[in-house]
Design brief:
By secondary structure, the protein is α+β, with helices and mostly antiparallel strands. It folds into two domains: 62 residues, Ribosomal Protein L9, domain 1, CATH 3.40.5.10; 79 residues, Ribosomal Protein L9, domain 2, CATH 3.10.430.100. It contains three helices and nine strands. It has a four-stranded mixed β-sheet. The mean pLDDT is 89.
Length: 147
């Protein structure tokens, strides 16, 4: 079953993408929740017209995302947390903590757009990927230090 996404869905696609999904997933979840519409001829034409009208706005959003990515990559980020003597921290560093550091620095980044490779459970240097736009992803290096 082919559907057109009405908003970004992690792991599936971005807004206005046409994707193939299993019929039950599309019919029972995506379409009733308002996340997607059926990809028939009239809906495709309607989405193409919407894309044309929103193209100028999309270019501005992409430019803003690229500017924000440059500023975030230049930022030196340190996250302080309680740790034992061997460098193992109590708990784990989460995307919430990194989003709070960005917020304190004056950047508004949604925590759901921040991802790590694996769990962060020791003191050291790490890398996070921030998905700012469908074509713009920023790689941020940060340090976890013991308080």
């Amino acid at each position: 079953m082919e559907i057109i996404l009405k908003q970004d869905i992690p792991g599936l696609g971005y807004k206005y993408d046409t994707v193939k999904v299993k019929p039950g997933y599309g019919r029972n979840f995506l379409i009733p929740q308002g996340f997607a519409i059926l990809a028939n001829d009239s809906n495709r034409k309607m989405m193409e017209e919407n894309i044309k009208q929103a193209s100028h706005k999309a270019e501005k959003l992409k430019a803003d995302a690229e500017e924000l990515a440059g500023k975030l990559q230049a930022l030196s980020v340190k996250i302080g947390t309680k740790a034992g003597e061997n460098g193992k921290i109590f708990g784990a560093v989460t995307s919430n903590q990194l989003a709070e550091v960005f917020k304190d620095s004056g950047f508004d980044v949604d925590r759901r757009r921040i991802s790590f490779k694996g769990d962060i459970k020791t003191v050291g240097e790490y890398e996070a990927v921030v998905d700012l736009h469908r074509e713009v992803k920023a790689s941020i290096n940060f340090t976890v230090v013991a308080e």
